[in-house]
Specification:
Elements lengths: L6 E6 L5 H10 L4 E6 L11 H15 L4 E6 L2 H14 L4 E3 L5 H7 L4 E6 L1 H5 L1 H10 L4 E6 L1 H8 L6 H11 L7 E6 L8 H8 L4 E4 L1 H14 L10 E6 L4 H12 L1
Parallel strand pairs: 1-2, 1-3, 2-9, 3-4, 5-6, 5-7, 7-8
């Protein structure tokens, strides 16, 4: 039986999920988090769905020990490919996924144009198609695949002029007077918020799903009476590519 002091595993295809981990730590400061980034296999978003599913299930199986009470898939791509399989495999644990924050954007900006930046895999999955179907009557939705942005964050090169130019070419044709928001549909993308905002301009709102995922995790733990109310809280950062440079990058992203 799960205990309040048990760990919460936070999983991502690389370092991007640290943006979700930060929101989780703010919402749940007394919890014990184990973060794992599969950077050796990043990016997931350009891989076939079956391969993404296999990688996700294998990594979670290795991480999901007896003292884990919840699993947070802090990766839109892995959520799309594997969340139902994970819930079936771990019915005794709380399993939380993430999806592009399109619903909040549509609620906030009805009748406007909303751009969704995400990986190719996220945009092609049925889960995103259902999400679009729920929102497209309220706003104009423009999906924009941005695989190069994941790789830039993994290399800590979000300030590179070449990246800004590539993103400018993708975004500028869709930035008009009716463009109200850009949904950052990959957890890597908030770490490139500055360059995206510079391209989009001050009148375009950038929205990501980190706070929503943290809120859902809180609600599920509360419903199961598993909130850690007395602990000091801890975080452990792990990577499938545990080089000094990668571990330093993970720590720096957490401290931003």
């Amino acid at each position: 039986m799960a205990k309040r002091e048990d760990q919460i595993v936070v999983f991502d295809s690389g370092v991007g999920g640290i943006s979700v981990l930060r929101a989780l730590m703010q919402k749940l400061p007394r919890e014990n988090f184990l973060y794992f980034g599969d950077s050796i296999n990043a990016p997931y978003g350009t891989r076939p769905t079956e391969e993404i599913r296999r990688l996700t299930l294998e990594r979670i199986a290795a991480l999901c020990t007896a003292n884990v009470k919840a699993i947070v898939i802090a990766c839109n791509t892995a959520t799309s490919a594997a969340i139902e399989d994970l819930r079936a495999a771990y019915p005794e644990k709380i399993v939380i996924g993430i999806e592009p924050a399109l619903k909040p954007a549509a609620d906030r900006f009805p009748g406007k144009t909303i751009l969704v930046m995400a990986t190719e895999a996220t945009l092609r999955e049925e889960k995103f198609s259902h999400l679009m179907a729920q929102c497209e009557s309220r706003c104009k939705i423009v999906p924009i695949p941005c695989p190069e942005l994941v790789e830039a964050v993994e290399r800590n090169e979000t300030d590179a002029p070449a990246l800004e130019e590539a993103l400018r070419r993708k975004l500028t044709p869709h930035l008009g007077k009716d463009t109200a928001a850009i949904v950052l549909g990959c957890t890597h993308f908030p770490f490139a918020r500055d360059v995206i905002a510079r391209i989009a301009g001050e009148n375009v709102c950038l929205i990501d799903g980190s706070e929503g995922t943290a809120g859902q995790t809180y609600r599920r733990l509360e419903a199961e009476n598993l909130l850690n109310l007395t602990g000091e809280g801890s975080v452990s950062l792990q990577s499938s590519l545990p080089t000094p440079e990668m571990l330093t990058l993970m720590g720096n992203l957490l401290d931003r």
